[in-house]
Amino acid sequence: MAQGRLDPLVTAAVANKAFPAFSLPDDWDVVVQDGGAILHTATVMTLMRARAGARVIGERASFAPHRDGVSIRTDSEEFFAERAILALGPWLGRALPPLAALLHVTRQAVGWFAPHSPDTVALGRFPIFILDRGPDDIVYGFPDFEQRGVKAAPHNHGPAVGPDDWGPPASDAELRSVGDALAALVPGAAGPIVDSDVCLYTNTAPADVRLDAGEEFIIDRWPESRLIVCSACSGHGAKFAPAIGQRLARLGTDPSYQAELFFQLSRYSQFA
């Protein structure tokens, strides 16, 4: 995804000329999308909390679903909701144990690299990018939009962890493949690691009714209750938040609405 006005499918030579930070091989297929953007999650969370005002509950909460609603209890109060949406990311399987076997949480290393050519990776001149070097070897990254370096990470799954096992920040060893990919394909962005972090992916298991290879989100109503469940919005789910939020709002307000079949629980035999 990039800024600039290129045809969607271009040669590597055209992409390298348009974005000099790249050095893509001549035989690569390159797709450029002009509509990309960056969702700054810290700003978004601040705005959402401000709009919610006093309705934000900053306490640990438990819930109990009933046929006519959901009771929610905190340390200081208990109230009843007609419907409740659980968008708990890696903790969803803990809140709803029947989902635990269908959700696999993985540790994902993220790094910031001091770019070799800072001018070529500046916001507005350099695109968000995804490098697909084959099965289990995908690297994505961003321009230096925070003046912190080029943010880049592997998209292939890291080791499985528990939802509270964030562990230490990502190590240089975990990010070595990313640094190698930048050096080979995006030399303008390559450089030493200046910062690192970890996020968690909440991955779904392959479906066995409406067959898929996994990786689709769960966005659906929970059986025999007024709960609505959403597995997204940890790790790579955050960037889909506007579209996911729209679907969750409709599930909560429009009884006739159903999310797309590939998001529904019925794609698994235990919920069919």
Describe this structure in words.
- Strand 12 (219-221) and strand 13 form a beta hairpin.
- 31% of the residues are buried.
- This protein is an alpha+beta fold and 272 residues long.
- It contains five helices and 13 strands.
- Its cofactor is FAD.
- Keywords: FAD, Flavoprotein, Oxidoreductase.
Which characteristics define this entry?
alpha+beta, 5-stranded antiparallel sheet, 3-stranded antiparallel sheet, elongated
Shape summary: elongated
- Tell me the span between the first and last alpha carbons: 37 Å
The fraction of residues in strands falls at 25-35%
Share in helix? 10-25%
| Count of runs of 4 or more consecutive helical residues | 5
Overall SS class: alpha+beta
**Biggest sheet strand line-up:** 8-9-10-7-11
Mean pLDDT: 91
Low-confidence stretches: none
> Secondary-structure element sequence?
EHEHEEEEHEEEEHEEEH
**Rounded radius of gyration (Å):** 21 Å
Largest sheet properties: 5 strands, antiparallel
Query: How many extended strands?
Result: 13
Protein name: FAD dependent oxidoreductase domain-containing protein
Domain FAD dependent oxidoreductase: 9-251
Keywords: FAD, Flavoprotein, Oxidoreductase
Cofactor: FAD
Tell me briefly what this model is.
This protein has 272 residues and is α+β, with helices and mostly antiparallel strands. The chain has helices spanning 12-18, 41-52, 92-95, 176-185, 241-253; strands at residues 9-11, 29-31, 61-66, 69-74, 78-81, 84-87, 103-113, 129-132, 138-141, 150-154, 193-204, 219-221, 227-230. It is built from five helices and 13 strands.
